C-alpha cells in the first residue's frame, strides 16, 4: 500500500495565524486533523478557505487533497476494498463492483432542493395551491438551518477528500471548475472517471471562481447504528441542496450517483442551467452524437430524452445503414453556446459514462460493452461465479455454467426461482469516455462541436409517431415543453406512469421553468443566429397487442438519415397537424430487420391528440400558470386548431 504522510496534532494561537498567512498554511496541516495526502498550502487561497471552513464544520480526522494520479487511485481502491465497498471483478481488467445499502439506489428528487431568496426564481407558482412538479424550493435561511442539523461533525473519524474537477476539457472557454469535498472514497473513484480531476485543474483555476460542492454520506465514526452492505448513508436525513445565488451545492446522506457525484446533475444541470440563463447559453440533459455519411459529410446532433430512455444506446449506436457512421461526443449532458459566427457549438462537460446497466448488451449496444471491459466501477449489478457481471438483458451472452449472485446477495439467483431481478433496475456502469470505441475525434475540442439539429424524445407507447420536425424554433420550443414519458427507475417514481418531463429537464431545472422557456425563445429574436432544426422522435410506440412497432437501436439510423437530409433541406417532409413527417418513400427501410406498418407508425389518432392537447393545457395552466410565455400558449392553441381538423 502506498505510504501516507503524517503530521502532528497541535494547537496554534489564532492571533499568530492571522498575522502570517504562510504560518497559517503550515499550521493548518497540524491542527485537529491530519493532511494525509497532498499539501494544503499549495491550494489557491480561495480553495484553502473553502476547505478550512468545512473542515471546521464537518470535523474530519484526515484531509486528502486529490491529485488525480495513478498512485492516488491505487490508494483509494486499496481503502475501498479494505472497507468492503469495492470488490475486484477478476474476469476483467481493473473493474470493480460496489453494492449499496438497498435504501440508497437512485436519485431522490423529492429531497432535492433549489434555494433562492425568491421562490418564484426557482419554481412557477402552481394554480390553486397545487404542489409544483417542476422542482422543490427552500429559502436559503431555512436550508441553512437544515444543513446545520446535518453537517456539523458529520465527517468525524473519516477522511475529507478535496476534489478539484473541471466540467469540460480543462481550460476550454466553455468549461467550468468545481471543488468537491466528500467523505466517500467511492465518490472520489467515480469522480475520477466522470470528470477531469486533479492538480491540473487547480492550475487552470488560477485563483478564479469555482462551484462549491460539499458532500457527506452522513455517518460519522464511531457508528451509532449498523451500516448495510458496508455502504454508509443516512436515507432519513438525505438532502441535496443548490444555492443558486452563491454557486454552491451541499448534499447529505446519500452516496449514490446523481446525489453524490456532484459534477453531474447538480453542477452540470441545476447550477449549470442557471449560469447558462445568466450568461446566454444552454445546459441541457442531452447526448451529443456525430453522424457521418459515406461522402464524408458530417452533422452533429444533440438529443434530450428523460433518464433511462436509451440516451447511451443512441449516443453509441451502430448504424444499420452501412453508409452512416455514428460517433459519440457524450451520452447525458450538453453545454451549448452560439459562437461569434452564429453557429451553436456543444461540449460534453463529462469525462465518462454513468450508464444504466440493465438492457445493455452486445445486441443493443456493443460499443458500451466494449467501453466497460476495463477500468469500470459497476454499482448494484449482479455478479457471476467466474468473476464477471450480469444484469437483465445479458441472458443470451453468458454461459449456463456460471452461477449468479444478485445485487442483493442472493447467491444462487435464477430467473425462474427468484422473485426479484438479478441487478437493480437502476444499476450502473461508470466507465471512462476515452474507452468508447466510437468516441468522436473532436470530443475534446475546446470550442465544442457544431450542432445542426436538436432532438426531443420520450417513451410514448401510444399516439406519437416515429419522428416529426417542428415548423420553426418557437414550435420546437413548444415540442420540448410538451415532452412526456413513462417513468423509469432512475429516480424514485413508479415505472410506467406517464409523466410530463419538459426538455427531459424536469428533475434538473435550476430555475423557474417559465423563465427557462423564455430563455429558449429569446434566441429566435437574434437574427444573426443559425438556429438548428428541432425534431421529436419516439422509438417506443406499441401496437394493439402491446408489441413495439419499430425495432429501435441500430435501426434508428434510418430516422437519423432522414434528419440528416432535412438538415440539408431536402424536400422529403410533409405537413401534418403536429409537425413535418417524412414523405413515406423518403424513409430508407432497405433491409429493415422487422416488417413495419408505416401508416400505423405515423398515424395521428384524433382522440389521442385531443386528449394530449387537453393534458398539456391543464399541465401548463396548473403548473406553469402565469409564468407560461404567451408564445407557448399560442403554439398550443394552434395545435388544438390543427388537431380539430384531423
Ligand atoms: C442519469 C439520470 O443518471 O438521468 O443520467 O438519472
Ligand atoms: Mn441523465
UniProtKB/TrEMBL annotation:
What InterPro entries would the database entry show? Answer: PEP_carboxykin_GTP_CS (IPR018091), PEP_carboxykinase_C (IPR013035), PEP_carboxykinase_GTP (IPR008209), PEP_carboxykinase_GTP_C (IPR035077), PEP_carboxykinase_GTP_N (IPR035078), PEP_carboxykinase_N (IPR008210)
The EC number(s) attached to this protein equal: 4.1.1.32
List the SUPFAM superfamilies hit by this protein, alphabetically.
PEP carboxykinase N-terminal domain (SSF68923), PEP carboxykinase-like (SSF53795)
Phosphoenolpyruvate carboxykinase GTP-utilising N-terminal domain segment(s): 50-276
The cofactors it requires, by name, are: Mn(2+)
Q: What class of enzyme is it?
A: lyase
Q: Name one GO biological process term.
A: propionate catabolic process
Q: Which UniProt keywords apply?
A: Decarboxylase, GTP-binding, Lyase, Manganese, Metal-binding, Nucleotide-binding
Which GO terms label this protein's molecular function in UniProt?
GTP binding; manganese ion binding; phosphoenolpyruvate carboxykinase (GTP) activity
Q: Where is the Phosphoenolpyruvate carboxykinase C-terminal P-loop domain?
A: 281-642
What does UniProt give as GO cellular component? cytosol
| Family per similarity comment | Belongs to the phosphoenolpyruvate carboxykinase [GTP] family.
Q: How does it assemble?
A: Monomer.
Q: Which PANTHER family match?
A: PHOSPHOENOLPYRUVATE CARBOXYKINASE, PHOSPHOENOLPYRUVATE CARBOXYKINASE [GTP]-RELATED
Name of this protein? phosphoenolpyruvate carboxykinase (GTP)
Q: Which species is this UniProt entry from?
A: Patella caerulea (Rayed Mediterranean limpet)
Amino acid at each position: 500500500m502506498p505510504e501516507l504522510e503524517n503530521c502532528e496534532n497541535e494547537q496554534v494561537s489564532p492571533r499568530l495565524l492571522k498575522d502570517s498567512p504562510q504560518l497559517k498554511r503550515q499550521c493548518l496541516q497540524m491542527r485537529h486533523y491530519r493532511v494525509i495526502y497532498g499539501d494544503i498550502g499549495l491550494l489557491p487561497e480561495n480553495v484553502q478557505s473553502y476547505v478550512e471552513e468545512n473542515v471546521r464544520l464537518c470535523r474530519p480526522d484526515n484531509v486528502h487533497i486529490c491529485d488525480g494520479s495513478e498512485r492516488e487511485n491505487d490508494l483509494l481502491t486499496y481503502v475501498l476494498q479494505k472497507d468492503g465497498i469495492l470488490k475486484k471483478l477478476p474476469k476483467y481488467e481493473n473493474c470493480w463492483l460496489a453494492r449499496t445499502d438497498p435504501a440508497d439506489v437512485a436519485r431522490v428528487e423529492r429531497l432535492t432542493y433549489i434555494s433562492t431568496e425568491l421562490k418564484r426564481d426557482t419554481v412557477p407558482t402552481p394554480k390553486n395551491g397545487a404542489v409544483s412538479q417542476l422542482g422543490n424550493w427552500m429559502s436559503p435561511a431555512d436550508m441553512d438551518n437544515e444543513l446545520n442539523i446535518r453537517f456539523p461533525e458529520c465527517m468525524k473519524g473519516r477522511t475529507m477528500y478535496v476534489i478539484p474537477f473541471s466540467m469540460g476539457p480543462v481550460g476550454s472557454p466553455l468549461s467550468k471548475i468545481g471543488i468537491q469535498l466528500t467523505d466517500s472514497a467511492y465518490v472520489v473513484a467515480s469522480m475520477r472517471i466522470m470528470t477531469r480531476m486533479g492538480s491540473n485543474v487547480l492550475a487552470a483555476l488560477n485563483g478564479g471562481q469555482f462551484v462549491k460542492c460539499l458532500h457527506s454520506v452522513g455517518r460519522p465514526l464511531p457508528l451509532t447504528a449498523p451500516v448495510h452492505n458496508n455502504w454508509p448513508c443516512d436515507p432519513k436525513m438525505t438532502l441535496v441542496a443548490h444555492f443558486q445565488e452563491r454557486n454552491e451545492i451541499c448534499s447529505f446522506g446519500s452516496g449514490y450517483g446523481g446525489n453524490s457525484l456532484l459534477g453531474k446533475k447538480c453542477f452540470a444541470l441545476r447550477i449549470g442551467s442557471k449560469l447558462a440563463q445568466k450568461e446566454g447559453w444552454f445546459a441541457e440533459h442531452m447526448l451529443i452524437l456525430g453522424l457521418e455519411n459515406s461522402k464524408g459529410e458530417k452533422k452533429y446532433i444533440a438529443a434530450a430524452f428523460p433518464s433511462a430512455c436509451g440516451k447511451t444506446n443512441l449516443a453509441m449506436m451502430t448504424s444499420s445503414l452501412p453508409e452512416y457512421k455514428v460517433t459519440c461526443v457524450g451520452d447525458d449532458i450538453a453545454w451549448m453556446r452560439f459562437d461569434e459566427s452564429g453557429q451553436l457549438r456543444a461540449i460534453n462537460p463529462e469525462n465518462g459514462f454513468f450508464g444504466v446497466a440493465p438492457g445493455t448488451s452486445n445486441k443493443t449496444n456493443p460499443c458500451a460493452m466494449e467501453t466497460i471491459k476495463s477500468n469500470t466501477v459497476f454499482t448494484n449489478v449482479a455478479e457471476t461465479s467466474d468473476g464477471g457481471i450480469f444484469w437483465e438483458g445479458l441472458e443470451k451472452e453468458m454461459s449456463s455454467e456460471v452461477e449468479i449472485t444478485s445485487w442483493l446477495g442472493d447467491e444462487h439467483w435464477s430467473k425462474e426461482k427468484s422473485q426479484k431481478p438479478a441487478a437493480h433496475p437502476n444499476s450502473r456502469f461508470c466507465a471512462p469516455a476515452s474507452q468508447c470505441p466510437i468516441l468522436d475525434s473532436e470530443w475534446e475540442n475546446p470550442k465544442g462541436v457544431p450542432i445542426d439539429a436538436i432532438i426531443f424524445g420520450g417513451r410514448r407507447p401510444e399516439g406519437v409517431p416515429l419522428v416529426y420536425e417542428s415548423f420553426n424554433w418557437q414550435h420546437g420550443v413548444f415540442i420540448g415543453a410538451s415532452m412526456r414519458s413513462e417513468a423509469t427507475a432512475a429516480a424514485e417514481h413508479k415505472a410506467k406512469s406517464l409523466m410530463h418531463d419538459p426538455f427531459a429537464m424536469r428533475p434538473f431545472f435550476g430555475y423557474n421553468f417559465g423563465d427557462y422557456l423564455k430563455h429558449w425563445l429569446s434566441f429566435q429574436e437574434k437574427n444573426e443566429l443559425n438556429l438548428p432544426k428541432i425534431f421529436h422522435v419516439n422509438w417506443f410506440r406499441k401496437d394493439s397487442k402491446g408489441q413495439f412497432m419499430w425495432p429501435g437501436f441500430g435501426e434508428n439510423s434510418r430516422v437519423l438519415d432522414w434528419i440528416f437530409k432535412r438538415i440539408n433541406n431536402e424536400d422529403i417532409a410533409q405537413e401534418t397537424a403536429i409537425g413535418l413527417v417524412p414523405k413515406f418513400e423518403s424513409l430508407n427501410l432497405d433491409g429493415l430487420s422487422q416488417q413495419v406498418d408505416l401508416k400505423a407508425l405515423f398515424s395521428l389518432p384524433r382522440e389521442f391528440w385531443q386528449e394530449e392537447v387537453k393534458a398539456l393545457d391543464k399541465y401548463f395552466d396548473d403548473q406553469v400558470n402565469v409564468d407560461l410565455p404567451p408564445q407557448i400558449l399560442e403554439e398550443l392553441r394552434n395545435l388544438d386548431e390543427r388537431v380539430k381538423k384531423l
